[in-house]
Fold these 2 entries.
Entry 1:
Amino acid sequence: MNILVFVKRVPDTESKIRIDQQSNSIIKEGLNFIISPYDEYAMEEALRLKEAQGGKVTAVSVGTKENQVILKKCLAMGADEATLIKDDAGETYDSLRVAKLLAQAVKQKFTEPHLLLFGKQSVGADNAQVPSMVAELLGMPQANVVTKLEIEGNKGTAYREIEGASEKVSFSLPAVVSAQKGLNEPRYETLKGIMMAKRKQIPELSLQDLGMKEEDLSPQLEVVRMDAPPPRKAGKVVEDEPPQAAKKLVEFLCQEAKII
Amino acid sequence: MFLVYTEVRDGKIKKSSLEALSEARRRAQERDEEVHGVLLGHNVEELASQLYSYGASQVYVLENSLLQGYSSSGYAQALHSLVEEVNPEVIFFSATAMGQDLAPRLAAKLGVGLASDCTQISIKDGAMEVVRPIFAGKALATVHFKSSPQMATLRPNVFPAESSDNAQGETVKKEVVVSEEQVKGQVEEVLKGKGTEIDVSEAEIVVSGGRGMKATENFDVLRELTQILPHSALGASRAAVDAGWIDHQHQVGQTGKTISPVLYMAFGISGAIQHLAGMSSSKYIIAVNKDPEAPIFKVADFGVVGDLFELIPPLKEELKKQLSE
Ligand SMILES: Cc1cc2nc3c(=O)[nH]c(=O)nc-3n(C[C@H](O)[C@H](O)[C@H](O)COP(=O)(O)OP(=O)(O)OC[C@H]3O[C@@H](n4cnc5c(N)ncnc54)[C@H](O)[C@@H]3O)c2cc1C
Ligand SMILES: Nc1ncnc2c1ncn2[C@@H]1O[C@H](COP(=O)(O)O)[C@@H](O)[C@H]1O
């Protein structure tokens, strides 16, 4: 089975986000970057499928040279190959651009994939759009926010999380699947994996290599302002004995918050 | 015209769709435009009248037996034909599991941008402007659209649903041209979660537990609180989920759900940055923690320093007393 895994480089979830009001973007200095957490579940699932059924796993990322680090991590986890689609446009929060690049790369450069695995959402942009968009651009079925995946021959069954329930989705391959937490527990890289990853080359594709021009990718959304959320103030804190504290809490709910 | 996709689950229109419809009406009024709703699926026509009272002057009914089970490609195909025909300026979805799955597929078909999970919508000089939290709410991006139709998904529980009596509208049935070929990846079965619990993303009150809960059975104590409090759901920190005390569906935070309920109650949760990201936009926050230095107190409107196990019994009594009055 030929599996493609799409991974994005994002600021660590522990990051404090500071904003540059001039450029309407976040300040990158001092941030630690990681592979987007949901993409790790996608990577792990690809490796497990390969281990069970054979095949090849290729990690693909759109971004700058710095994305090499997360692609190396994928190689160290066990991916056979990795490709960087070079795009220096920076974070546009516009998923269609990334989706078009990925779909074009799949059409032109990766022969007959069986499965396209994504994270359900990238940490930061929080769009949850790229997987569905790529599925549409390639005319493939999709199953998003998946917590369980079964592949048999050219058929797939996925369980996707919805409000208070889950949906069982059946599809034929090739297909797009996006990973939710719960799908698996991602492995750590081994020392041997890290050594092997060091030696592997990561080919780069430019827009030209994909036969695309900047005009094909012009942004459909524009971030005109970026703000910090309104600060919350610490409110009242009580240290009374439980019965007293409970009374005060309920008083707060009735009189100040007026919720009950 | 503002077109609003209204989602049907278990034969009922989802509350978050009514919120999206109400918001569309408020914004459309500023531009002197109409709001139209879409009902999609199988045997959904009878639900149309409910949409009139939330602001739809027209409701398109798209029925086809092939659309009985949800499929993103089939539904996107049906919506695409409608959009091509009726040319809306704006399309709203609610940011539910279905909306988040379907809207980007339609956006790619139309080749337009989509703003996900918006929490504010306004009209500035005639143009629509949206605010969407990024980094799970650690920053807010104000977004303009450069393509048309302008598409957005609206976060549940943020926009008030407002109905009016004796509103009238018109139902317009449209033929849906989809082939079996186009219906890919269909839902075969919906497997219900335990009981009739409300999802954290949809509840007005969220009662959440963290590592301080110490064991699976102690979550039953919180569950009892959700039974006392109206429209409430059970939430959890990642530590509680990872310990296996509660299912991941309940996780609140950067890698769980980002929510904006009216009231968030945190029991035995320290308030790590990833957790705060997911719930800081709650209207009111209450924290119960035995550590007075816990960071959760920095965002709480009301905090109790103490042992949660000692506080909950009298709290239950007080709440019952209040709610019975
Ligand atoms: C990539 C990544 C993503 C993450 N995503 C999330 C996420 O989405 N959501 C999330 O929540 N976390 C997330 N985390 C984890 C986060 O960093 C914290 O580890 C986690 O939120 C801690 O959970 P907690 O507050 O329940 O536990 P702790 O930090 O251990 O806090 C437990 C609290 O309970 C109090 N307590 C103990 N006993 C009692 C008692 N009897 N009465 C009262 N108080 C008591 C203690 O004083 C303490 O403050 C993520 C981490 C990473 C690395
Ligand atoms: N720049 C990128 N390069 C590769 N994959 C990406 C990129 N951006 C998003 N993705 C994939 O799409 C998923 C959803 O991202 P998003 O739509 O941005 O929330 C991510 O989890 C990745 O799997």
Entry 2:
Amino acid sequence: MQRAAEINLSTWRESRRLVHVNANWFAAAFAGCAVFSAAFASWLPLQLSIVSLFLFAGPHNWFEFRYFLSRLPLRFGRSRPFFLIAFSGIGLLTTAYLALPLLYNLSFWPNGDWSIPLAIWNTVMLLWIAVLAQLRGKQKRTRYWSLAFPVAFLLVSLNWMGPQLFSLLIVYVHPLIALWFLDRHLRRIRPEWLTTYRRGLCILPVLLLGMFWQLNTPTPIADDNGLFWRITQHAGAELLPNVSSRVLVSVHVFLEMLHYGVWIAALTMIGGANRFWDVKSIPLARHERGFPRLIGTMLVGGVLAVVLLWVGFAVDYSATRDLYFSFAMAHVLAEAPFLMRML
Amino acid sequence: MRKCFAAAFLLSVFAMALTTFADVARPNPSKEAKVVMHSGLEIVPDAQAFEARLEIPQDMWKQMHAGLIEGPGNTTLAQRIARSSPRTVLAGTFLFLSFAFAGVWLARSKQRNQRIAAALALGVAIVGAGTIIASANAGPPGYLRWQGLPSALTEGRTTRGGVDIAIVPEGSTIKLIVPIKRVTRTPGEE
């Protein structure tokens, strides 16, 4: 056995120094990307919104899908109820979300309040998340998970006070969930970077405050054509008339850029997913009792869907944009169960 | 433990009172005038002017115009909640359920930090609900700002205060109604 006094500390110190250097480079790259995105989103918000959606919307969904596949266990075992409720919830809620435009036009809502179906959808979504949290809590043996229902009921109550505002909140919170995924991923793969990453996150409120301070002018953004109007409405210009539409669009584009960056670049490059084209890098396909053909087919189908989305954007950007945001609800919902599995 | 149950009971009663209070019918709004927005008004005596002039900022004019065509953005959150009874009832019910479940969780929790977390969550819920209810009554009544208008006009000083901009169906002139209330002062008060 080697004695403690004989261990060469210089090697250990060198490795610690390299870890710090790498973490600092990572933090610098993260901060640099955030500052660049904020500057660009403030300068050309509408243009960047159009270009970033065209370039990254499809690919980021593919990378997210691939990431979720890599987190799926080969056998569900005791987690079977969790995954059954998760997948059925994603399917049903996405279908109901696609049907919302039809439900708006039905005449049986009290006082013609068409926001009621939206409030019902938000309620079902929140209760679905609460049930998933309850099921996850049974496996984690910590009592904090049982707070899921009180918190969910509180959020449902807020949702009924302003369903449209609550939906707008989802639009702004969803991009930030990617940062939470990155946090949990780093904790598993690069725990030595975690502190630096969390310190790096402090730059986000500073950037957001700076954007608000610089862009909150009385002059609204020029939404004089159908596409620009759609973008400002999506960012909440009609729901928040006292906030400059320039701020809303810029902040939304900035957060979306971070979201795309995390899913396409950060989570792919950190922790072994850099050979993303290799199906065997996914445990579900690599295992001897796995499903390599099925996984391969699903990933190829995903690539085709991305190409189809690009073609759609090229032919009719506005219509494809509307269609994309309707179907994209599925990936927003899918993040909830997979994030819970990582907590 | 008894204190926890008492606190949970009180919170539940408070939540039920909120729900009940929230569903009390509001007085019928005036059918003659429709308030499209609330803004500030500044009355400036000008010795050089020959004609009274009403200056409206361009953005405000757009908001007034938007108010006429019933855009959803020109109503406050409190107004939107108050105008939809089913939504108000459901919001109150779920708020009550939230308090009730959190209260039970608090009563059953044994560790100190769990109690602190639950107390914080309940505190946030109460403050949030209180803020929404109180926001309609925030600040002193508007008429107080107009009390000094007669003397200010006499002395040539500017007076500022809030104003509700209402669109009335009849009439051919713009009318400014200024609330001047008699304030009884106690002896010795200046």
